[in-house]
């Protein structure tokens, strides 16, 4: 009887030790995973050429590195639907341009060149020698400026609902008329301006979030960036910029505005586009599944073809 009790106690102690060991093992694994997650989620900071701190994040692994650049009065959050998809196969870099998101906002002038320097600083900080730059809206112009600064790193550009016509004829008077309402009352006018880019079929909650978010931008920063970007069309310098960039260009666009393929190809060594029917300016958020597939196809078209 005594022997039987001892055996039972030994069994209980063995089970207790086993449970304790498993608990410790799970705790270690949980802590280790937590460290990995924490490491990948912490944003990083790098100084742009003028000393402005630029916030960026890196996820995943695999070359080429994909650097996503947001548009006017937006930030890195606008790529939230692309991060899980592309970080499975590529190193994905998200950043906030100066004056946007969590980056510094002390510049007196927000030019496309200075934004290009922001992208350059982040890209060089990753150490990658093989990069594809992806830019939404204003970001499509920014990535061209960045590519001019990094001819040895950037292998291709992908504009997102941008670069429909790099020769678009815009007069100084038309630009003034476009910006005048925003100079007078920024929040109301910018909201109306952005609303024209969103289709009625777009999810109502997403539409309201975009409108509220973009109209909350700092007016002086937003107006400076808008004038700097659109002035490139007035002067013809946007087309000249692409004359200097000897890399292929692709775009993934909605069908709100027509594309002038001939005009683009006069200034690009290679250009093609994928059009998503019935999509608006924020197609990467409202139509993420179709957009991600189209973007993946565009990325593949920029990669070297394997030799047979």
Automatic annotation (TrEMBL):
This is Pimeloyl-ACP methyl ester carboxylesterase. InterPro entries: AB_hydrolase_1, AB_hydrolase_fold, AB_hydrolase_sf. Residues 64-186 form the AB hydrolase-1 domain. Pfam families: Abhydrolase_1.
